[in-house]
Design brief:
This protein is of the alpha+beta class. The protein contains five helices and seven strands; from the N terminus they run αβααβββαβαββ. The chain has one domain (2-177): Gcn5-related N-acetyltransferase (GNAT) (Aminopeptidase). The strands form two sheets. A five-stranded mixed beta sheet has the order 1-2-3-4-5. A two-stranded antiparallel ribbon has the order 6-7. Keywords: Acyltransferase, Transferase.
Length: 179
């Protein structure tokens, strides 16, 4: 039932616009076609979510290599939003085990800047929800950076709720530093 609702919402979004937008499943066979664009999205995501991080563009390259390995061993589930020949967003997730059973964990969902607020993220999220329903999963989880309020609101609008809070304290040179 959940997958039918997701498919209906996906159809409605397509009818509102983005008629040429396709959401496809990525595999170890087709991932290389869009790897450069995914690398750019990884780098964009880290700049948005961790603006103080001292990372160079090798971050995206390293993450792409990691995803390649996971796709090859079958542990990654990934979908891409494609407009024509261009990847405009993507989501990467995998199965995890919690005390209450197995669930899908969204490791990364990123949409190209000029495609924000056009339904692309929603289409990707709905595709993951459809995959979860079709494969017997009853829960999906993810982490969202608290300072990324547009992402927090996006997930809240899609009925995602906080389950736990990740808290941190920064310690440098043996002293407490206010975050």
């Amino acid at each position: 039932m959940l997958w039918m609702l997701a498919a209906l919402r996906c159809w409605i979004l397509t009818r509102k616009g983005n008629q040429k937008l396709q959401v496809i499943k990525l595999s170890s066979n087709n991932y290389a076609l869009w790897r450069d664009q995914i690398e750019e999205l990884f780098n964009s995501s880290v700049r948005i979510n961790f603006p103080d991080a001292e990372l160079d563009d090798s971050y995206g390259r390293d993450k792409c290599e990691e995803v390649t390995r996971f796709l090859e061993d079958g542990s990654a589930i990934a979908f891409a939003a494609i407009e024509g020949e261009k990847l405009v967003g993507w989501v990467w997730c995998h199965q995890i085990h919690r005390l209450d059973g197995f669930r899908i964990h969204i490791a990364e969902i990123t949409v190209a800047d000029k495609w924000h607020r056009q339904g692309v993220g929603g289409r990707l999220l709905e595709r993951v929800e459809q995959y979860a329903a079709e494969n017997g999963y009853s829960e999906i989880d993810l982490f969202v950076t608290a300072s990324n309020q547009s992402a927090v609101k996006f997930y809240q609008k899609a009925d995602y709720k906080p389950e736990r809070y990740l808290m941190k304290k920064i310690i440098r040179n043996g002293e407490n530093i206010d975050a």
